[in-house]
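Example record for the data management plan.
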Amino acid sequence: MRSLRKTVLLAIVASVVLVMALLHSWPTRAHTTVDVWQRPGPAVERHLEERFPEPDHRSANIPYRVKESVAGLLARNGCVCEGESGGMNLPFAQLLFPRVSAHPMHTAFEASELEEMKKRRAKEYQGFQMRSQTPADMLIVAEANNPLQYPTQGMEVRPLKTILIPGLAVQDHPRELYTVSRPITFGLSYYFQYYSICLVLVFFVLCLPLNFFLSQVNFTSTLGTLNVAAEVEGVKVKGDGEMHMTLTSSLLSNLNRQLQFVTYTNTLFHPSTADTVQVETEGHQAMFTIKVRHGVTPKLYNTGPKGEYNISALVTIATKTFLRYDKLQDLIDSVRKYYSTVTIVIADDSENPKMVSGPYIEHYIMPFGKGWFAGRNLAVSQVTTKYVLWVDDDFIFTANTKLEKLVDVLERTTLDLVGGAVREATGYTATYRQTMSIEPGEEEGDCLHMRRGFHHIIQGFPNCVVTDGVINFFLARTDKVQQVGFDPRLARVAHLEFFIDGLGSLHVGSCDDVIVNHATKIKLPWVSQSESDKTYAKFRYPPASSDATHTKNGLLYFKNRFQCLTHN
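Corresponding structural encoding:
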């Protein structure tokens, strides 16, 4: 008995020495060179792969029934560029029964350059993913019956700052109860079994190492260090101030008290990333993320005292003009009839620009033919009010052009942009509402689907709906429009491309009770067309086979990584 005890004690001592040697040689990470790409690293990826549960083969033979109404909503990750075929070629058939058409984007390039374009696009897309994704985007499955308690989301720290990690605790293991169906007898064999069990228990108490009765929690971080803001009696802390920290105690209540003071300090500066912290106890492991990022700097606008909306302090009107100075003057005159002190910003890329002046007018001259979206960028860049109203230079304000209604919608909702309606000279009123969705594809790219319509009506505003794209008459939060921007490569034919770029960041609405008139486009046969009108038409309405169309498709293909556009 004594020799057995000596053997066990020697084994314990050897194990302790080995563990101490391993802990002493535990590698610590030194930030000598910084990898700015936001990727979790092979260790985290391997750990995540190991944490995914293995499929249970026992359930393979259990039959199931697919619910098509739900399964059909799942992403297929393999979109197909298909439109609707057939139909009757009758007058106004497309207007009455619109069919979905499909346009492959790769046709913007010659076959000889398409493969090289695909490679370059794939490389750029990979870089985009690495820049935009963080470990916080990775799937982490929380297993059941885990004694660990930890925050699953909402953790955030400023770069190089320290926070307390809330919610950390270790729950006691539930004890399993076993029952014996065999009847109990109080004979000699019963007392023999009883004393045998007592001897075994005494042996375990004397011979087992002390750490058998200890509770231990291990933490590991990758972008910062761990520490404790206070020390609790009966708890041993090792590795405080390092990326790997261990808490040990024989009293679970003391350990949980110590866990309330665990801190995290970010040590690797990055303006927006996330750290994945691993926590482990007695064979149970878990992971949670801490977002590392600067707080969003507010951009506030002083709109004066409260009361009725002061449109002059809230809204700036922006427009882009090209050659059509007569129509531009009609727009200015109509605005001044209803809003005499609202600032009007004009971007002008005419070849021989004319002076446009007056109170609350800002006229900016651009290089000749610089383009439609370049002019939008210039005009919006000069806006200093909370909202910017975009109008075409041939619009005319009327009594129905109530900007206060659009301001009220933006002030009382989370919308970033709300469009109005445009009334043509024929009496037809258009809102041009478009819904958009992106269907994930594979190597060839994604599919963009656009449909006429909207998502739902806005509560409290029966004439307003939520949609994704609106007509060329809209009021928007200035900072959000500047954030999305207008691609200056789209010179003369462009509009919805702005909403495509803003998909996912712009919350768009549309109201049909705020109406602006459109100058007539009806051409009388006995009225000759002016030279400026002819020049304007040449730039404004290029043929479908022109470079402008190829430029648009090329941008959708490469910049937005679309292989196909479908719309009705």
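Summary line stored alongside the record: Confidence is low (pLDDT under 50) at residues 22-40, 47-53, 175-186, 205-212.
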